[in-house]
Specification:
The structure holds four protein chains of four kinds. Helix content of chain A is 30%, strand content 24%. The radius of gyration of chain A is 28 Å and the shape is globular. The two termini of chain A are 53 Å apart. Chain B has a domain of 70 residues. Chain B is built from nine helices and twelve strands. Chain B has an eight-stranded mixed sheet with strand order 6-7-8-3-9-10-12-11, with helices on both faces. A four-stranded antiparallel sheet of chain B has the order 2-1-4-5, with helices on one face. In chain B, strand 1 and strand 2 form a beta hairpin. In chain B, helix 3 crosses helix 4, helix 4 crosses helix 5 and helix 5 packs parallel to helix 6. Chain C is mostly helical. In chain C, helix 11 crosses helix 12 and helix 14 packs antiparallel against helix 15. The radius of gyration of chain C is 25 Å and the shape is globular. Chain D is an all-alpha fold. Chain D has twelve helices and no strands. The chains are: A alpha+beta, B alpha/beta, C mainly alpha, D mainly alpha. Chains in contact: A-C, A-D, B-C, B-D, C-D. The interface between A and C is large, with 73 and 75 residues.
């Protein structure tokens, strides 16, 4: 017995010894910028990280940190600006090469950009970056490649001189394919990658061979290059010693004009004539002496590390939960940021089925759902109601004038309105719902809804998230079902696993109604993908089976439109149609909440769509305080 | 000269859910050096409890209610744990009931004996201890290479011998042998008993034999004590008790066993069951089963009295038949113990 | 003996085959496949999806895929992970194995030791306060809700008291310039630790084999033991490993203690029950009668034979340590095999999930086998009769 | 076999077992309060454990008079959830343990009685079942299909039933099988079914019952762990309560939002410990070697 206690004592002693010696604080010191991520990145290789095993973590730690592209979107306004290019591309021109007609465009490049091995970034690198992927076949590379180096548009890229390239296009591209697609492809170092492509091409499975390469030593042109990756523990990037963007100033003016000026190399560019006040001025760095991504397996630990000062920012595409927000409010030296996101949660019916294909039915449903009540009361402001398929956060494309069904109505008014809509379409009841509008009370619940064809409407399934997957959406789903039941719509909410929902909806198209969410890209071409009738077959994205020839035509025009302003008008019109026809009943979305160490990091801006995580937490423009 | 072991009105009870079990009640006896005492009685009469009391190995639910046990004049129930440990094996060793199970199955037999020796005689080196084991094995008649074997490799008789060797390891002043041979067949049993007796005499050691088998006791004891239901009912020289049992229980017990060499007699059984010690019968505890019981027997506890010199008995109506020879009694007198059968009658 | 081993080996392989088949088809029967990941991105054309299916071999029939899998499995190839394409599954498992192994081995051995010692004590003091207290406390931890307990302990020791590191298995700042990978260090820990353990065992066995532990022998044993440890530490420090080993040990303390806390009661209660039987054995009584000190009777007589059933449970728990503990790994950010299993399942990465399960199965099977043999070694009463032991 | 009252007497001697039994009874009373409360005192709109919501407060609200244990992040009453879940936990635990034990007993006795191929077959099956890492496997299956309440209980029960318990119960059945009265019954012409049912099973049952207690503990803990990882499709349980708090980020500062995790965490531990303790108590009844001499 005594020996046992001795053992315990020795154990405790050991614990304290270990604790005393080793935890002499590795807490935030120096100018190392530390972030928490929640999963191991899968690769260092750009090709595989944009390929099928693409994860958001790869994007955080490597892609945007290492590579530059000809053009980019300047956060926080997302203005289209040149990055390795010296100016905007020349307007598309029809040109006959051989016996085929192509569209061509000339891009002049900056001459002051250098690789981290101190060699200049030239037209050869650009040409290689495009043509190597085309040769590999973007479809075989998979993942994002077919949408970046789009083989349906791009024929090839040619070198004109050392700093000029010529794009040869098969077809006239729309905004999404040109400005938001081809022109934003990452540029890789030809000298490094060419032999690797050559070797891959000779292998039995070229794609596998290419993906398997780990380019730890590749030169980069971005602010960072690869440092060290201890799988499961951390990823470290070190500064590119010859980063040409260092000291470059990007200025945003009130009239939307963006100017870029590099005092060191003398490079200058402006999108127009600057007018009005300077809204934001960002000086590129990097200021940090390195970036370190600590890999955690659970969120609580990451947040504890944030308050404990071991990390400066928590990188998570979903942001922080509300609980953390409330608890972090009072934490010293921790600042919170809240931003809109680019996405929405929605409810949808199978429009191939009767009576879901009746427009008024869907309008009645949309009217009955009280988004404001849920968002403000139940979810207490952690969600905001949404009515259009383009979220308000994407301000340039958002149409604020779309119909908003049932907004501002009381419970009884909503019911009365829904009854009116249903009656208009020819619905009847065995027991018609009755309300007292004065007292805002339901006098009689509806029962036995009879469809316009005279048959009693059968009960149908409404697939919602499981409580384990997301308690919020689960609760919302249950609430929707109970509101619809009040007017006698025989809906049954069935909590269903995400895999099952997606395979029933997208592969089998065998469903009645479901609830889901999308997160979107800046350019709202999702309207075409989700609702164009060509996407309606199994496996396509128009799983609800919406079919409207007028809409199809407009959507086609929209994605082909190369002019920003005209595209915007078309997008507005599309939103209007969708808000009236309601193939999706858009419900709500949640803002993204983030937190950072205010005593360590200072950001040029914190207001940006989808939060600082969307800009990789600004590794090159953050100022590190000691 | 002081007796080696003395029980003085020793009374010990077990606590159970149902109440107190009066396992040993007012036992008074003493044992001289070199003397062999046979303790006989039916199963559950308290024989083993006495043995355990002497070893101070009683379970946690036991309680010494009255009386003392003196070993070499010292009360073992007021000794410290250390003193008790020293007394064990060096003073009193024990051969357990079902001796075969008293060897640890996962240690070599030799080790277990060496362990006992070095524990009690720290000045002995291990080599010396092993040498002693070798001679002990010779003494009890086991081939000495068997020292290095595990118990499960031994036969029953061999285990028994090993246990005896183990008991002898520290030259104890006395050994308690609790049913030492019950598990063996009759021939081996006899052989081992004789050998033990020889060894005992050779080194002039005291011994308590405990058995329900009268013939075993008869073979090796100088003095015989008969127990019934936790009480001592008869005590005397082996000759005396076996030839002239005075207590009806002793008498019945003798008749229940065949004598091997003696005259033929009809085997008799004792009617009834041993009493429940939770609530023993009033008066004489044997009276419900006694064919000589009188009215008095159920009322008054009979006194412990000396019926003839050196022969004690508790009975209101002792048996008066003389010369009944039931068992085989070892011829010859005890070495130096016969008259020193110290008893008192203060029960 | 040889026939026994061979027939047993045949059984092992057959069992393994059935197990793999079960695992394979169980996972196949789950809804969804990896190409569904593309659902989240409408810009991925159908053609790219088909290409991927072809690349991953999903376009073949299930039976064909299964046969290929089994064939490769017995060749030691577990295929290529979908979600880490094109990393081989084996590669990923090997990356995770050392971490998992070191953490869980330590935790299981410690928890076994604590359980064994406590069980010994409470069986010996049956019915006393310490028995009830240890049983109630042990059961409470045994049935405690592990994730929550882990969070609470992290919160107390790592966050509030700042005694131990918060999460993760190494400190990135220390390791950012490390000349070796963590797995190298884990490897040294396994081999070096194993070698030192064997060395210590041999030393103590050589000096303290007998029953009489003379002062001189004890001193010599401790001295040479310390020298061995010192040499090992010196070697590690010369190789520049020590600081890294120390860092890992430092990060191990909290998860190991937590694991021990929740699992020691299992061994403890098993040991107690087992020992309550042996303390009633005659040889324990005999040992008392021999006048042996209490602790020797307890440890060498009562506990020594009672340990047998617990050893089986130790071996099996060691084997299950290969599969890691999802909860531990998640709560302490210790990415091991349990995490691999979980994430591969979430990502519909069947080759990886199947591989991880199969891998665990192999270890468990081997452990069953080892447990049988160990049992025979520990208990001299059991000898191989050339017949499989009776079932049960 | 001893009678029930004798067994009870032995069980009562076990303080650990009695402690467990008392705790279980308290939980029983607590769970039984749920239907009473929701039908009388509590307004289902506010106190419903799944869709209830109290519009009068900010959530999560610390304990108030109206909500004795506070509310969760989406405004549901913690006490109501706790009470509602108690019944469900009983159902889950007992149902899955019952399935395990019934399967284990039947297979164990049949394998012991018939021996030969039947025996070998089921023992190999048990071996294979024991190869599966239990919790990880359930997590894998759960993350792919999100099990609902009853399928989950049944899967737990079946997985357990074919596993180790079969081997233990078979060993017990074997020891019964060799007793003389079985031969006697066979000689007397009893059918196999009769012998198994009337002679073997009753002797195996106490051990089965004992393992049932341990299995209840196992089932509840599995459910809680899987719920914690969010891979179950169960609307409310103690594990789900903790998951809700965790998913919303409230398991961070332990002191501040204690009502979100302490009641449910404590309930899981106490409930499981209680069943385990009853199992320990029963062990002393079933296993005479453990009884005090």
């Amino acid at each position: 017995m005594r020996r046992f206690w001795k053992g315990i004592l020795a154990g405790l002693l050991f614990v304290f010894l270990v604790a005393g010696v080793a935890s002499t604080g590795f807490a935030g010191q120096g100018k190392l910028y530390e972030m928490a991520i929640f999963a191991d990145p899968t690769t260092i290789n750009l090709y595989s990280s944009l390929g099928p095993s693409s994860t958001v973590w790869n994007t955080f730690v490597s892609n945007s940190q290492y590579y530059t592209s000809l053009y980019g979107n300047a956060a926080p306004t997302w203005a289209f600006v040149p990055s390795a290019a010296a100016d905007m591309p020349s307007p598309l021109k029809e040109e006959k090469i051989g016996d085929k007609t192509y569209y061509t465009s000339i891009v002049k490049m900056r001459k002051d950009i250098k690789w981290s091995d101190n060699t200049p970034l030239t037209a050869d690198d650009v040409v290689f970056s495009y043509n190597a992927v085309l040769e590999m076949d973007p479809n075989k590379l998979g993942g994002n490649w077919p949408s970046i180096v789009d083989p349906t548009v791009l024929e090839r890229v040619e070198k004109v001189d050392d700093y000029t390239v010529k794009f040869i296009l098969k077809d006239k591209p729309g905004l999404s394919q040109w400005q938001y697609g081809v022109l934003q492809n990452y540029i890789v170092n030809k000298k490094y990658w060419e032999p690797i492509f050559e070797k891959a091409k000779k292998a039995a499975d070229p794609v596998k061979e290419l993906f398997a390469h780990e380019p730890e030593k590749q030169p980069t042109a971005g602010p960072w290059k690869f440092g060290h990756w201890e799988k499961g523990a951390f990823w470290q990037n070190v500064p590119n010693p010859v980063y040409s963007g260092k000291g470059e100033v990007t200025t945003f003016y009130e009239n939307g004009v963006v100017t870029v000026e590099n005092p060191k190399t003398g490079f200058k560019w402006q999108s127009g004539k600057p007018e009005g006040k300077v809204q934001l001025k960002i000086t590129d760095g990097p200021d940090a002496t390195g970036t370190l991504y600590r890999i955690f397996q659970n969120q609580s630990a990451a947040v504890l590390s944030l308050t404990g000062g071991q990390v400066d920012f928590v990188l998570n595409s979903l942001g922080l939960q509300r609980g953390f927000q409330e608890q972090l409010k009072k934490a010293p030296n921790v600042a919170l940021i809240e931003n809109n996101v680019n996405g929405f949660r929605f409810m949808a019916f199978n429009l191939r089925k009767y009576p879901f294909n009746i427009k008024e039915f869907r309008q009645a449903v949309a009217t009955l759902i009280d988004r404001e009540y849920i968002c403000e009361k139940v979810l207490q402001g952690i969600a905001f109601p949404q009515y259009s398929v383009v979220p308000p956060g994407n301000a340039y494309w958002y149409n604020k004038d779309v119909p908003q069904w049932g907004k501002g109505l009381t419970r009884s008014q909503k019911i009365a309105e829904a009854v009116k809509l249903l009656k208009k379409a020819g619905f009847k009841w065995e027991v018609e719902p009755q309300v007292d509008l004065e007292k805002d009370k339901v006098l009689k619940r509806g029962k036995g809804l009879i469809m316009p064809d005279g048959k009693k409407m059968p009960e149908f399934e409404f697939m919602i998230m499981t409580a384990g997957y997301d308690p919020l959406r689960y609760t919302f789903g249950l609430n929707i079902a109970s509101w619809l039941k009040e007017v006698g719509i025989p809906i049954e909410a069935v909590p269903t696993e995400f895999n099952v929902v997606s395979s029933k909806v997208f592969d089998e198209q065998d469903f009645d109604a479901f609830m889901m969410g999308w997160s979107l890209s800046l350019y709202p071409d999702h309207m075409k993908f989700f609702f164009h009738s060509e996407q309606a077959e199994p496996g396509g994205f128009n799983a609800v089976g919406y079919s409207n020839p007028d809409f199809d035509k407009l959507a086609d025009d929209f994605v082909k439109e190369a002019d920003m302003e005209k595209a915007r008008q078309k997008a507005f019109k599309l939103q209007e149609i969708l808000a009236d026809e309601l193939p999706y009943v858009v419900l709500f979305d949640t803002p993204i909440i983030e937190a950072y160490r205010s005593d360590r990091a200072q950001y040029p801006y914190t207001k940006v769509l989808s939060g600082l995580q969307y800009v990789g937490a600004l590794t090159s423009t953050v100022k590190m305080l000691d | 000269m002081d007796p080696l072991l003395k029980l003085d009105d020793f009374t010990m009870h077990y606590r159970t859910k149902a109440g107190w079990v009066q396992a040993v009640d007012g036992v008074t006896l003493s044992l001289a050096r070199g003397q062999a005492l046979g303790l006989v009685g039916e199963s559950g009469c308290g024989k083993t409890s006495i043995a355990m009391s002497v070893m101070k190995l009683l379970p946690y639910n036991s309680k010494v209610v009255r009386g003392r046990i003196l070993f070499e004049g010292r009360d073992i129930y007021s000794m410290t744990d250390g003193e008790v440990r020293k007394m064990r094996w060096k003073g009193v060793a024990m051969i357990f009931q079902a001796a075969m199970n008293s060897l640890n199955p996962v240690y070599r037999v030799g080790n277990q004996i060496v362990e006992a020796i070095v524990t009690h005689e720290p000045e002995t080196s291990e080599e010396e201890a092993w040498a002693r084991v070798r001679s002990l094995f010779e003494l009890v008649g086991i081939p000495k290479e068997r020292m290095y074997h595990y118990p499960h490799e031994y036969s029953g008789g061999m285990k028994q011998r090993a246990v005896i060797a183990m008991a002898l390891a520290c030259n104890p002043k006395m050994i308690i042998a609790d049913e030492p041979t019950t598990a063996l067949d009759v021939i081996v049993q006899d052989k081992i008993l004789r050998e033990m007796d020889q060894i005992r005499r050779k080194i002039n050691m005291s011994m308590i034999y405990i058995s329900h088998d009268v013939s075993v006791i008869a073979e090796v004891s100088d003095v015989v004590a008969v127990m019934y239901a936790g009480k001592l009912v008869e005590l005397g020289q082996a000759d005396d008790v076996f030839k002239r049992p005075r207590h009806p229980y002793t008498y019945a017990l003798m008749r229940a066993y065949p004598s091997i060499l003696g005259e033929k007699h009809e085997l008799a059984t004792i009617p009834g069951e041993p009493p429940n010690l939770l609530d023993p019968p009033s008066g004489c505890r044997f009276h419900p089963r006694c064919d000589r019981a009188s009215a008095e027997c159920s009322k008054a506890d009979p006194m412990w009295r000396e019926i003839c010199p050196g022969h004690y008995c508790t009975c209101h109506n002792p048996v008066e038949i003389g010369g009944t020879w039931v068992g085989q009694v070892r011829s010859g007198k005890a070495a130096d113990g016969g008259d020193q059968l110290g008893t008192s009658s203060n029960s | 003996m040889r026939r026994y081993v061979l027939s047993r080996l045949g059984q092992v392989i057959l069992t393994l085959l059935i197990y793999i088949t079960l695992v394979y088809f169980l996972l196949q029967a789950m809804p969804g496949d990896i190409t569904q990941m593309y659902l989240a991105n409408p810009k991925v054309p159908q053609a790219a999806r088909e290409e991927l299916r072809k690349q991953l071999g999903l376009d073949q029939g299930v039976v064909m895929q299964y046969l290929t899998y089994v064939k490769n499995f017995f060749r030691g190839e577990l295929g290529v992970s979908f979600s880490h394409y094109p990393r081989p599954v084996w590669d990923i498992l090997m990356e995770r194995l050392p971490r998992t192994f070191v953490l869980f081995l330590t935790a299981h051995v410690l928890s076994f030791y604590v359980g064994y010692v406590m069980g010994r004590v409470i069986a010996w003091r049956r019915g006393r306060v310490v028995d009830y207290a240890a049983t109630v406390v042990g059961i409470t931890f045994w049935t405690a809700f592990y994730p929550l307990l882990a969070l609470v302990l992290i919160w107390i020791f790592a966050y509030t008291l700042r005694l131990l590191p918060l999460n993760q298995f190494i400190e990135p700042k220390l390791w950012q310039g490390a000349p070796f990978s963590a797995n190298t260090v884990f490897g040294y820990m396994v081999y070096g630790g194993g070698a030192v353990a064997i060395g210590l065992f041999l030393i103590f066995y050589a000096f303290l084999r007998g029953l009489k532990r003379t002062r001189r022998n004890v001193a010599l044993a401790w001295l040479s033991g310390s020298v061995l440890v010192a040499v090992a530490l010196l070697a590690a420090s010369r190789a520049g490993l020590l600081v890294y080993i120390w860092d890992i040990v430092n990060h191990m303390v909290l998860p190991v203690c937590t694991l021990t806390l929740i699992s020691f009661a299992g061994t403890m209660l098993l040991m107690r029950d087992s020992m309550l039987e042996t303390v009633q054995e005659d040889y324990v009584m005999a040992a008392h009668a021999k006048g042996l000190p209490d602790t020797i009777v307890r440890d060498r007589y009562a506990a020594r034979t009672a340990i047998l059933p617990t050893v089986t449970s130790l071996v099996l728990s060691l084997a299950s340590s290969m599969s890691g503990g999802l909860v531990t790994e998640t709560m302490f950010s210790w990415p091991g095999l349990g995490q691999v299993l979980f994430h591969s399942a979430l990502a519909n990465d069947y080759p990886l999930a199947t591989g991880a399960l199969a891998f665990t199965g192999v270890f468990l099977l081997i452990a069953h086998f080892v447990a049988d043999i160990l049992y025979a070694v520990l208990d001299p009463r059991i000898a191989y009769t050339g017949q499989p032991a009776a079932e049960g | 076999m001893r009678g029930l009252s004798q067994n009870w007497a032995v069980f009562r001697e076990s303080r650990i077992g009695m402690l467990g039994l008392i705790v279980i009874l308290l939980f029983g009373v607590f769970g039984a309060l749920w239907p009473i409360m929701i039908n009388t005192v509590w307004d289902p709109l506010i106190y419903h454990p799944v869709v209830g919501f109290d519009p009068m407060l900010l959530h999560p609200s610390p304990p108030t008079k109206a909500h004795l244990l506070g509310t969760d992040p989406i405004g549901r009453d913690i006490l109501a959830q706790l009470m509602f879940s108690t019944g469900r936990e009983f159902l889950l635990g007992v149902l899955s343990a019952l399935i395990t034990v019934v399967i284990g007993t039947v297979i164990g006795t049949v394998a012991a009685y018939y021996g030969g191929f039947t025996d070998t077959f089921f023992m190999r099956v048990a071996d294979i079942m024991m190869l599966f890492p239990f919790i990880p496997l359930l997590v894998v299956v759960g993350s792919m299909v999100r099990l609902t309440f009853f399928p989950f209980a049944i899967i737990l029960g079946v997985l357990g039933g074919f596993g180790g318990i079969t081997i233990i119960l078979k060993a017990q059945a074997l020891s019964v099988k060799v007793r003389p009265y079985i031969d006697a019954a066979r000689v007397a012409g009893g059918s196999s079914f009769h012998i198994i049912r009337a002679h073997i099973i009753p002797n195996v049952l106490p051990l089965s019952f004992l393992y049932m207690m341990f299995n209840v503990t196992g089932a509840i803990l599995s459910e809680a762990t899987l719920s914690f990882f969010g891979v179950l499709n169960i609307d409310m349980s103690w594990g789900m309560m903790i998951h809700t708090a965790e998913a919303a980020g409230y398991l961070f500062d332990f002191g501040k939002y204690w009502w979100l995790w302490l009641p449910s965490g404590l309930a899981i531990t106490l409930f499981c410990a209680a069943f385990y303790m009853v199992g320990r108590g029963l062990d002393e009844v079933v296993n005479p070697r453990l009884r005090k001499r």
